[in-house]
Specification:
- The protein is α+β, with helices and mostly antiparallel strands.
- 17% of the residues lie in helices and 30% in strands.
- The chain has 6 helices and 19 strands.
- Strands 1, 2, 3, 4, 5, 6, 7, 8 and 9 form a 9-stranded antiparallel sheet that branches. It has an 8-stranded antiparallel sheet with strand order 11-12-13-14-18-17-16-15.
C-alpha cells in the first residue's frame, strides 16, 4: 500500500537557495521557489486543489520504516504544484505535477532519492514504477511511469515522471494524459526548466500563479463575459470586492444551467457576490423551473427595474418559500438578487443554485444583500475584453 505523505500548512520556514550538480552541503532553499509555475506552461492551466507546501510527514501505516524514519528525523520542506489544463492545448499534457523536497543535507537527500519510487508515488498519489531514465539531470536521475494516472477526474491515463537530485534537493516533474511518448517528452522538457530553477532559485513574481481569470479566457464560452473587474469598490458605504475565482465553460449537468460563474469575495466572513452568466435560451428555460423561480416569483417579492446603457435589470428582494406560506412577512426582505438582460447574455446576481441554499431569516447576510448592494453591482457590470 502506498503511504500518504502529509503536506502540512507552510509556516515561516527559514528557506533560501541551492546549487545544482554539486556534491556538497547547500544553503537552505524554499521549495515554493523551485517548483513549476503557471507561466512555465501555455495559457489555459490553473493550479490544482492538491497543491501545497509544508513539512514532509508520513500519515499512513503503509509507509516503509525507512521512509517513516527519514520523514520524522529530517523535517524536510516540500512543495507539490499541481497544474491542470482547463482546455486542450496541442502538445501539452492535461496534467503536470511538480515536486521539490529540500533535505537538510546531501546525505539525507541521497537517502530520500533511494526511496524515490515510494516517496513520489505517495506525493503524487500515483502508483509509479521505475523505468530507464532518458536524460541525465543534476547529480543522479531516475524515470517513473504508470498507465493508470488520475487526470481531471478520469483514471486509466498514461503518465511519465522524471526525478533527480541536485545536492540536497530532490525534484520531480510528472506529465500525464497524452500518449506515453508525448508525456515523456513533456516531462523531460519541463524537468529541464525546473532543473534551471533549482540551480538558480528566484522569488515568485507577483501573479505567477494567479489563475483567477483562466476560465474567462476560454474560447469555448460562447457568450461575452460581463464582470466587475478584478477589484470593485462602488463606495456608498459598501466595502470593496475582489475577484476570488471563475469557472467555465460549465458543461450541462455541472450546475443549474449557467455557462460561467464568477465569485467575488470580501475581507472577513461576510458573503460576497456571485455572478452567473447565462445563454439567453438556457436562462428562459431555467426561469420555468422551481429553482429558477425562488425568491423573485412571489407576491411577497419587491421588484425594482433599472435601465442600463446595454440592457435592463430587475433587482428583487424576497423570502424563502417557507417564509411566505402563511402570508407575506412584515420585515424587510431576507434575500436580494438581480436579473440583468444584456441581449446576448444574462447575468444573474446571487441567484440560488439549489432549493435548500437560502439561509434562515435569522442568519446575517453580507452588505451586498440589499437593494443598494444589488444596484451597485448591476450598474458596475462591464464587458471584459476577449482574450488575445
Amino acid at each position: 500500500m502506498i503511504a500518504r505523505l502529509g503536506v502540512l500548512a507552510l509556516s515561516a520556514l527559514a528557506l533560501g537557495a541551492a546549487c545544482g550538480g554539486r556534491e556538497e552541503a547547500v544553503a537552505p532553499a524554499d521549495p515554493a521557489e523551485l517548483v513549476l509555475r503557471l507561466d512555465d506552461l501555455p495559457a489555459g492551466y490553473r493550479v490544482g486543489d492538491d497543491s501545497g507546501c509544508g513539512e514532509l510527514g508520513v500519515t499512513s501505516e503503509g509507509a516503509s520504516a525507512a521512509l517513516a524514519e527519514l520523514a520524522l528525523e529530517t523535517h524536510t520542506s516540500v512543495c507539490r504544484q499541481q497544474l491542470e489544463a482547463q482546455r486542450a492545448v496541442e502538445g501539452s499534457p492535461p496534467l503536470v505535477e511538480s515536486v521539490a523536497l529540500v533535505f537538510p543535507d546531501v546525505a539525507r537527500a541521497r537517502q530520500g532519492f533511494l526511496l524515490r519510487e515510494e516517496l513520489l508515488s505517495a506525493l503524487t498519489g500515483e502508483e509509479l514504477e521505475e523505468t530507464s531514465a532518458p536524460v541525465a539531470l543534476g547529480d543522479e536521475t531516475a524515470a517513473l511511469t504508470t498507465d493508470d494516472a488520475l487526470v481531471l477526474g478520469q483514471t486509466g491515463n498514461d503518465a511519465y515522471a522524471v526525478a533527480w537530485r541536485q545536492g540536497s534537493i530532490v525534484s520531480a516533474v510528472l506529465a500525464a494524459g497524452l500518449t506515453p511518448a508525448e508525456d515523456e517528452a513533456a516531462a523531460v522538457a519541463l524537468a529541464r526548466v525546473q532543473e534551471e530553477r533549482v540551480a538558480s532559485p528566484s522569488p515568485l513574481p507577483p501573479g505567477a500563479n494567479d489563475d483567477r481569470e483562466v476560465a474567462l479566457d476560454s474560447p469555448d464560452l460562447g457568450i461575452p463575459v460581463w464582470w466587475l473587474g478584478r477589484d470593485f469598490a462602488p463606495g456608498g458605504g459598501l466595502p470593496p470586492l475582489a475577484l476570488h475565482d471563475s469557472f467555465g465553460p460549465i458543461e450541462p449537468g455541472g450546475g443549474p444551467g449557467n455557462r460561467v460563474q464568477i465569485d467575488y469575495g470580501l475581507e472577513g466572513p461576510s458573503p460576497g457576490v456571485v455572478l452567473q452568466l447565462w445563454e439567453p435560451g438556457a436562462w428562459r428555460v431555467f426561469l420555468g423551473t422551481e429553482l429558477g423561480r425562488l425568491v423573485w416569483d412571489s407576491e411577497c417579492a419587491q421588484a425594482h427595474e433599472l435601465e442600463l446603457p446595454a440592457g435592463r435589470a430587475v433587482v428583487y428582494g424576497g423570502y424563502a418559500p417557507a417564509e411566505t406560506a402563511t402570508g407575506c412577512p412584515s420585515r424587510p426582505p431576507d434575500d436580494w438578487l438581480a436579473h440583468v438582460d444584456l441581449g446576448d447574455v444574462v447575468v444573474a446576481v446571487n441567484v440560488p443554485v439549489c432549493l435548500d441554499c437560502l439561509l434562515p431569516p435569522d442568519v446575517p447576510r453580507g452588505p451586498y444583500n440589499s437593494l443598494a448592494g444589488m444596484e451597485a453591482v448591476v450598474r458596475g457590470l462591464s464587458e471584459r475584453p476577449a482574450a488575445g
